[in-house]
Automatic annotation (TrEMBL):
The lineage of its organism: Bacteria, Bacillati, Actinomycetota, Actinomycetes, Propionibacteriales. InterPro entries: GH, GH13_cat_dom, Glyco_hydro_b, O16G_dom_2, SupH-like_C. PANTHER family: ALPHA-AMYLASE FAMILY MEMBER, MALTOSE ALPHA-D-GLUCOSYLTRANSFERASE. It comes from the Bacteria. Residues 18-400 form the Glycosyl hydrolase family 13 catalytic domain. Pfam families: Alpha-amylase, SupH-like_C. This is Alpha-amylase family protein. It comes from Kribbella deserti.
Length: 557
């Protein structure tokens, strides 16, 4: 690998960290986290080894969908700070080798957006055609509605407009009409604006819906919607060669693959691996890695310069929508048996540690997997300390509680009256008294120290991020074993999905004398026989990463 390549294609070995400024750190005591607060706490992320911050929406918003309902794509929510603060933040991040990407939510606007206000006011409004209108809505029923417990149609009649408008999400989020060239141009302007301020790209919200051209009066007139994504990517590349598009595409693999574009990857730089994530939870529920292995085998290769984005938890409900009904019930039974833990009948509004009854070994095994499986790991804030959810909070906000910094008042997040926090803290076993950054920072045995170590080794092993992954066969059904090869170097990783110890033999290399397997997560070594096999033991939920050393290999630390 040429060294320039790692820097140029930085996203292939990045550690992405998603956070909401609003719940990260509050500096002025109003109960709302702010941009300056994130700046003050940025060293926590640098120490952890994060290389890219994904900021959830920080734009002006009536906040009816936690900021995903935007009234000004060029603005900054005044509760959070100013454009000046954003630019300072990007500089602070850059100074620590971190890039910043913004959530780009342009499938829809808030119904309070001035564009929509104008559009609904008259058929003559220059913005009328920026949204999607019908005199009579197509009969759609609840099919395709994203929030089935709240909405029963994609079409909403607007009294003022005298017509129905399309909304994929909540009815207060009218869909923009991307078939309209003016809308497309405006979206490019929005991207150009934030790139100019120093952003390194975007997490693109709801990509398949964004590309949908239901708004066209004659769909046959329209070019392939993927052409539009190609245009956006080309524009991005012209403006900033190192900027990325990380897309939210929750579709079956063959369809998701199309969003990478052609072999050169001329559409999304990265797509989240929603399928692998769901199969991982099924594997965890069954205490055997079969479903995950199947997913990894079926997962199409990302484009040459692209990468999959892997994750354990994101900011939404933990969706299980691509499992069969029976499989979903298995996961519900294991990790969220009570109805109030579930959402929309298809997902969980819990974080991992409570699902596992706070079993630290099991948690560590899962994060070890995240950082050793092929793909770019994306963390959701609080995962590094094992935060839980607050089920008393409505809907998806259960997992969007404030970051827990100390065991003190409001977890050190804010000095405001707890009643003024935008989302209440977690309490009890997973509250700040028991789970916080301060306590874990200097404790070498903490989850946070474990994740810091995983990140350090992941960053030091190009095999994991750039290599070809092979699932290794063996006879311990609860163990997932894989190796990643890159330019003649090999890392082997083994993970035990069960609460029983396991022992097994792996073929890690061709026959030959002098092979060694050096532990990467502890001081140690495993013996390799001359036939290229090794006999390994794993504790319950054990995990081990090993680098293969061939005779004469040098320069490896
Ligand atoms: C995406 C976001 C989600 C939001 C929705 C509408 O799915 O992840 O949080 O509600 O888009 O913008
Ligand atoms: Ca504040």
């Amino acid at each position: 690998m040429r060294l320039t390549q790692t820097a140029d294609l930085w996203w292939k070995s990045a550690v992405v960290y998603c956070l909401d400024i609003e719940t990260f750190f509050d500096t002025n005591g109003d109960g709302v986290g702010d941009i300056r607060g994130l700046g003050q706490r940025i060293d926590h992320l640098a120490e952890l080894g994060v290389t890219c911050l994904w900021l959830m929406p920080f734009y002006p918003t009536p906040d009816r969908d936690d900021g995903y309902d935007i009234t000004d794509f060029y603005g900054v929510d005044p509760r959070l700070g100013t454009h000046g603060d954003i630019v300072e933040l990007i500089r602070l991040a850059a100074d620590r080798g971190m890039r910043v990407i913004a959530d780009l939510v342009v499938n829809h606007t808030s119904d309070q957006h001035p564009w929509f206000q104008s559009a609904r006011s008259s058929r003559e409004s220059p913005y009328r055609d920026w949204y999607v209108w019908r005199d009579t809505p197509p009969e759609d029923g609840p099919e395709g509605v994203v929030f089935p417990d709240q909405e029963d149609s994609l079409w909403q009649f607007d009294e003022q407009a005298g017509q129905y408008y399309l909304h994929r999400f909540y009815k207060h989020q009218p869909d923009l009409n991307v078939a309209n060239p003016e809308v497309r141009e405006e979206i490019s302007r929005v991207m150009g604006f934030w790139l100019e301020l120093g952003m390194s790209g975007f997490r693109v919200d709801a990509v398949p819906f964004l590309l949908e051209t239901a708004g066209a009066t004659d769909a046959s007139d329209l070019p392939d919607p993927h052409d539009y994504l190609r245009d956006l990517r080309a524009m991005l590349a012209r403006r900033n060669g190192q900027a990325v598009l990380l897309g939210e595409v929750n579709l079956p693999y063959p369809e998701t693959q199309k969003f990478f574009g052609d072999e050169d990857g001329d559409e999304l730089t990265m797509c989240f691996d929603f399928i692998g994530m769901q199969q991982l939870y099924l594997s965890l529920a069954r205490s055997e890695p079969g479903p995950l292995i199947k997913a990894l085998r079926e997962r199409p290769k990302a484009a040459e310069e692209g990468q999959w984005g892997t994750f354990i938890r994101n900011h939404d409900e933990l969706t299980l929508d691509k499992l069969t009904d029976d499989e979903r019930q298995e996961v519900f039974k294991a990790f969220g048996p009570e109805e109030h833990m579930q959402l929309y009948g298809r997902g969980l509004r819990r974080r991992l540690p409570p699902m596992f009854g706070n079993d630290q070994a099991r948690l560590r095994m899962v994060y070890s997997l995240l950082f050793s499986m092929p793909g770019t790991p994306v963390l959701f804030y609080g995962e590094e300390i094992g935060m839980g959810e607050n089920l008393a909070v409505e809907g998806r906000n259960a997992v969007r509680t404030p970051m827990q910094w100390t065991e003190g008042f409001n977890g050190g997040f804010s000095v405001a009256d707890p009643a003024d926090l935008t989302v209440p803290m977690v309490d009890g076993e997973f509250g700040p008294d028991n789970v916080n950054v301060a306590a874990q920072r200097r404790d070498p045995d903490s989850l946070m120290s474990w994740i810091r170590l995983l990140i350090q080794e992941y960053r030091a092993c190009p095999e994991l991020s750039w290599g070809d992954c092979t699932v290794l066969e063996h006879d311990a059904p609860a163990v997932f074993a894989h190796k990643s090869d890159f330019e003649g170097c090999t890392v082997v990783a083994v993970h035990n999905f069960s609460d029983q110890p396991a022992e097994f033999t792996l073929a890690v290399a061709g026959a030959g004398p002098g092979l060694r397997l050096i532990d990467l997560l502890k001081v140690g070594e495993a013996e390799v026989a001359d036939d290229g096999t090794t006999r390994l033991e794993l504790e319950p939920y054990g995990a081990r990463w090993l680098r293969l050393l061939r005779p004469g290999d040098r320069y490896v630390i």
